[in-house]
Design goal:
By secondary structure, this protein is of the alpha/beta class. 36% of the residues lie in helices and 23% in strands. The strands form 3 sheets. Strands 4-5-6-1-7-8 form a 6-stranded mixed beta sheet, with helices on both faces. Helix 3 crosses helix 4 (95-108), helix 3 packs parallel to helix 5 and helix 4 packs across helix 5.
């Protein structure tokens, strides 16, 4: 059950719906193309109020939204070409258009040599590529992905993530993906919403969510800290603009300040490297350390 979910998915982005099992993320995803209904509220997709659509109008609306699933959902008795062509045949496209569009999509997903193969002869990653090609046949503006990589091994997962990124960048398709894998979110998504028990914990820009999580987010991510009881503990957040600058050593030199590094990490988020660090300084040096940090470009908080 979803409860008071309110979010906006920017057009042309890759947006993650993240949560543990039962959080409501797949249910929320399926409301976007009308596969799940809701009792209260409104859902607008590309300027269309979904509640106003029924019958043929809803069917036509769904042409603009492709969907891929965890277990591929391919037709075992149809070869790769016919699996991809299925939506086009359902909409009675001309055969010449079907041939052209299917082979273009198979080229996009790197399976042009597999058009005559059957799903049983394909690897898991290849099956998912077929499913992605099929989801793109009607040239949708939105692609929904429901745990599309969770059944794949790490190397296959990376190839599918790379493909989704290519689709987003080259075709301008908005990608909304459901996942419980934090690494998928960090590598691929521009924005995300974290769900728990059908409620929205937090949503927004990936950098903001991961660099400066609130207490609920920390609990969700399973982060725990053991901090020194003496002195002052300061958490530093390094946005991409300053993530690789030697700010800590500069502070030590300029202030002649000795401090302890409690813990720290640098992580890759897409093309950017972001970091966070907790330091412990003597209480008597807190004011001057804070003045330095104010001018350094990092974000910080006293714990």
């Amino acid at each position: 059950m979803l409860d008071q979910i309110s979010l906006e998915i920017p057009k042309g982005t890759i947006y993650g719906l993240v949560g543990h099992s039962g959080a409501g993320k797949s249910t929320l995803l399926r409301t976007i193309n009308g596969l799940e209904g809701f009792d209260e509220g409104e859902l607008w997709v590309d300027g269309v109020n979904l509640q106003s659509l029924q019958g043929d109008a809803l069917r036509v609306f769904r042409k603009n939204i492709g969907m891929i699933f965890q277990h591929f959902s391919l037709m075992a008795r149809q070869n790769v070409f016919e699996n991809v062509a299925l939506p086009l045949r359902c909409w009675k496209y001309p055969e010449a258009e079907i041939q052209k569009r299917v082979f273009n999509l198979l080229s996009l997903v790197g399976l042009e040599s597999k058009s005559d193969s059957y799903p049983s002869a394909l690897s898991g990653g290849q099956k998912q590529r077929v499913a992605i090609a099929r989801a793109l046949t009607l040239e949708p503006q939105i692609l929904l992905s429901d745990e599309a990589t969770s059944a794949l091994d790490p190397s296959m997962t990376q190839s599918i993530l790379d493909l989704l990124q290519t689709i987003n960048q080259e075709l301008g398709v908005t990608v909304v993906l459901v996942t419980h894998e934090m690494e998928v979110v960090k590598k691929l998504c521009h924005h995300a919403a974290f769900l728990e028990g059908g409620k929205l914990l937090r949503s927004g820009n990936i950098e903001e969510l991961f660099l400066q999580p609130d207490p609920k987010m920390r609990h969700f991510l399973g982060e725990s800290e053991v901090l020194p009881k003496e002195g002052v503990n300061i958490r530093l957040y390094f946005p991409k603009e300053v993530a690789q600058n030697p700010i800590i050593t500069q502070m030590a030199r300029q202030l002649s300040l000795d401090f302890s590094i409690v813990w720290g990490k640098l992580e890759r988020f897409g093309e950017d490297v972001l970091g966070s660090l907790v330091i412990n300084i003597p209480e008597a040096r807190q004011e001057e350390a804070e003045r330095f940090l104010e001018s350094s470009g990092v974000r910080w908080e006293v714990l």
